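Researcher: Please translate sequence to structure tokens.
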Amino acid sequence: MLCLGEDSVPWTAFCFGAALVLARDPGCMAKVFLKTYGCQMNERDSEQVARMLVARGYEMTAKEKEADVVLINTCSVRDMAEQKALGKMGLLGRLRAKKPEMVFGFLGCMAQSRGGELVKDLGHVDLVVGTQKFHKVAEYVDELVRRKRDLAERLMEDVRYSIVDVEEEAGSQGEIREHLLREKQATAFVSIMQGCNMHCTFCIVPSTRGSERSRPISEIVEEVRQLVDRGVREVTLLGQIVNLYGRHEWPRVGDKSPFVQLLEAVHEVEGLARLRFTSPHPIGFKSDLVAAFGRLPKLMPHVHLPLQSGSDRILKAMHRAYTAEKYLRLVEQLRSVRPEIALTTDIIVGFPGESDADYEATRELVKTVEFDNAFVFRYSPRRETPAAEMADQVPEDVKEARNQELLGVVDDLARRKGEELVGRRVEVLCEGPSKTNAEKLMGRSPGNKVVIFDGGDRHIGQVFEVAVTRSSGFSLYGDPAFLG
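Model: Translation complete:
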């Protein structure tokens, strides 16, 4: 028996297998609803939080009304993401009327950016934890749950009490290393670094995630080995600018950057079938990384290569450190070493000062590259970023018109790319049931296209070919005759 918390609150811990269950009475287990907004790194951070909560005996739930603890992992890259998180927390706060002892918390980038003001603005928020303190969330939740249950037992008034932790912490990049895997999980994210030093004028990430910090290659390789031992076949390496990994910590070896050294080391893990990474920056694609796509067969032929704008004038204002010509040259280099490589991108329309001519340059470059897919966003001013203070802010109706038109261009390109695969066989890694139709299975092609097909549990985690019978543009549908 292990006593936790105050002496007057008789919490006990019992070990059931690998799970540590906290309870006052048998069956009295707190349930946690965890909602994630934003990028894959946020998803990975949420998985770490969930893993630590489960280890302490909490039960994760997808049903909001069942929850004793509500946590929202937030994104600050665009205003819409922040508004969604704030709106969601506002709605969930109504649950406290029936369950006063509930704990509500914000995690992640918006928590880092706004800190204690979130507690002031939303009266029911108890917990605010920034991007370098995810490993402390379970401890803080424990403290809040104990305090609230103690007050309830003593019939005491719920005195306002909150925890806000947005301080920096050395070594935090090494704390996101544990995984909460579902049964027969075939893919996993692996965080290799945190932070960003690029300071693009539109981006809040350097202030919410801090400066670049990388994990040692040996730690990352061991994490991948453990994942493979648990059945994972594909890993995606994550970083704010992933291909700048280790540039401040470790030297080049020969002509190879630390990132290429890492790719090679992970590639050698026995049992790993596929390797991906996201999100890179064009300036991080030196000759060694381009060449890696031609000589590392496990490295999948897909690159998410953020463009942001096709106008040199706007790229300079964004501090993107490349030109449209250099971007196109990189595309040519990648396609020369891996002709089948799929390219996706991020684009911002309506950046301050973007003229019709600037927008046209972006649209034409998109057509020239023929991206497999693109995420198109309207520029959104972010606090304490240079672009937010720039003159010539573009009107919202102009942003929306450009956004919709460019989305139409992207959709047409994606449809054409999908139709080119109809009648051909593509290799897929089966990940499990389709999210849109549980009676079907889904997997991804080497180019990261979703493929839907018939099959059974025995196919999950397997790599095989599927004959593509039709395409909806962004998804492919396969003939089960080739599943075996």
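Researcher: Any highlights?
Model: The first strand starts at residue 12 and ends at 16.
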